[in-house]
Amino acid sequence: MDNETFTPANQDISTIFLMSAIYVVPNYQRQYSWGDEQLNDLWDDLTKAFLDDPEKEYFLGSIVVVDNKRGRHELVDGQQRLTTLMIMLNVLYRTFPGLNQESSEIQSADNEAIRELIYHKKSQYRLRLQVRPHYDTIFNTEIMNRERFDNIEAVTKAEMKKNDPTYKFRNTAKFFYDKFMEFREQKGEEELGKFVNYILYKVDVIKIRCTNKAFAIRMFLILNDRGLDLSAADIIKSYILDKCFEIDEEESGALGSKFDQNWQRIEGICNDCELKMDDYLTLYEYYKLKSNPKRQITDELEEIIKYSDVNITIDELYNFAKSLEKVYQDTSPAAYSLRYIPWQIYTLSAMTTAYMVGYEEIEELFRELRRFFYISWVSGKTLSGIKQTSFNLIGDIEEKKPLEKIRGEIDEFIRENHLVREVFESLRDDVFGEKFFKPLMLSIEYEMREKIETAFYPLDRNIHMDHIIAREFDKKAEEWPGLTKEVMEPYLNKLGNMALLFWQKNEEALNFGLERKMPIYRGEDEASSGTQSFATTREVIDWYNREFEEGVRRVRAGEISANEFATRAMERRRKYLIEKIKKLLEIEEPKDDSGLQA
Fold it and tell me: What are the backbone dihedrals phi and psi of residue 463, each rounded to the nearest 5 degrees, phi first?
């Protein structure tokens, strides 16, 4: 490996800070976040190691830096530990001015020695935090420029939860002030001096110096087994900030500020949409590439950013987020249906692209996308089977190709893969438990309900598929007179025996006969949740009101068996739902070899 790219060195804390460069926390890093848990772990480890054997070295971990050869070491990994240590040094320097003055140790951290670890060339600070949004100014005010630490008040739990580094800085300073004061009271001034000497000269850190940022980031990802502190979003943010500072200083400051504001707005939109920033950037990547990425997202977007005007990139990222927001604000039936598709990166990218480019027939377009994704899903297509066509569709939308062209491409894909036949075969099988089934039923619901009803039903435990004839009806045989398990078993998990219900209703309806289920379906029984039934479930109520009493009469008269009456009812409901699905997906059931409907 090229030593100019990667240079590891085992250094004690004093050596880590005593160097000819200063440490800089880049703007893409997250703000300081250590709380009592991390601080207590560090303190307990240090005190235990010192008390067990003050001559034995203790390993604190590693840091990864990028050496820009101009007196700055950019912290890719280790900013939390170094910031914590810098706060600790400031507390020691201003609280114990007489520390180690009488010590005869060669390596002895007196007040002047500690000051050298804080200041570079007497005036510059050895650690500089992010300049945006003013973290470095806050750090200097709260820590570096503070004259005393005995007047810091304890930080409350509510303050620690705020998105403000001020309280984290204060809390860490208060923590070390209290701990060192307690240590001195219990063990004396001399022992405190020895403990500080141990921290500075016996506690080691592996410093990995890199000359290439991309290599440093990869090194960080390999070494960091505590969870990825640096996400793809952090890295991409750094690429854009670097691009901002390639231009003249005055303009770059204004541009950087604009980008920070836009980035925070994007994070807010993603939070409202319950979408991770990394996933948002993947949507943007697919919009830009319109093809399957050949490299990691950070590499692909770095290339895009590198050859783009940074002003355009900053505006485009924000406008794309606003377009994503419009997708989640869209209350059309097709838009709601597409939010259930398991391949969300592709559906969201296509829909967001449509809003981004101002596609004119957007509602009709979303219906076509619903056809493509639902037919693919119900027929059993996997991600690999739909990926290329999905990218083609994103490209078609970005180019604002006519709806007829997009529909033709979807029809060709469906026809070449014989998906319609597979859809109907899938619907003839057991559908209960199939991941597509509840979203498919909800999609029918959205099409049937009044336009003023705009609520979206998330796929959570509140919505369930109820078996109209209970799966374990034989355990309540008195509620299902005349039905036999042998005849009913093949029908129970099929389309004709399913009805959408809210959770509480589902619990209430479990195993009951139809006479007791109907008031629950209607929301009329005393124990009911009172929530109105879904439209497709109300159809069961309509059938019951129209035909059940006459059917029971015929069963009792011996004109028809209970099994035959039940199976006919399930077949009737199956046909009803099939018609709804055919209309929703704009498909017709193919004929078998005899020319009859399959």
Answer: -120, 130
CA–CA–CA angle 19, 25, 30 (5° rounding): 150
| Pairwise CA distance, residues 216 & 238, whole Å | 13
CB 76 within 8 A of CB 211: no
Tell me the per-residue pLDDT of 121-133, one tens digit each, with 9 for 90 and over. 877 899 998 765 5
Residue-averaged pLDDT of the chain: 88
* Per-residue CA distances from 288 to 257, 349, 383, 405, 531 (Å): 25, 10, 20, 21, 45
Q: What does the alpha-carbon distance between residue 89 and residue 111 come to, in Å, rounded to a whole number?
A: 10
Q: Which two tokens stand for residue 35?
A: 């709380």
DSSP 597: B
Work out the angle between the directed axes of helices 297-306 and 310-329 (0-180°, nearest 10): 130
Which SS3 state, helix, strand or coil, does residue 203 take?
strand
Q: What is the largest CA-CA distance in the chain?
A: 111
Residue 98 buriedness (CB in 10 A; 0-12 / 13-18 / 19+)? exposed
pLDDT tens-place string over residues 150-205: 999 999 999 998 878 899 999 999 999 999 999 999 999 999 999 999 999 999 99
Query: What was the pLDDT predicted at 33?
Result: 87
376 band by pLDDT with thresholds 50, 70 and 90: very high
| Alpha-carbon separation of residue 62 from 78, 219, 327, 402 (angstroms) | 7, 11, 43, 56
Provide the pLDDT for residue 1.
Answer: 41
C-alpha span between 508 and 505 (Å, rounded) = 5
| Secondary structure (3-state) at 105 | coil
- Which residues, including other chains, have CB under 8 Å from residue 496's CB and lie 6 or more apart? 569, 570, 571, 572, 573, 574, 577
Task: Tell me the helix, strand and coil percentages in the chain, rounded to 5.
Answer: 60, 10, 30
β-pairing verdict for 58-67 and 203-210: parallel
Helix axes 562-585, 362-379, angle to 10 degrees: 130
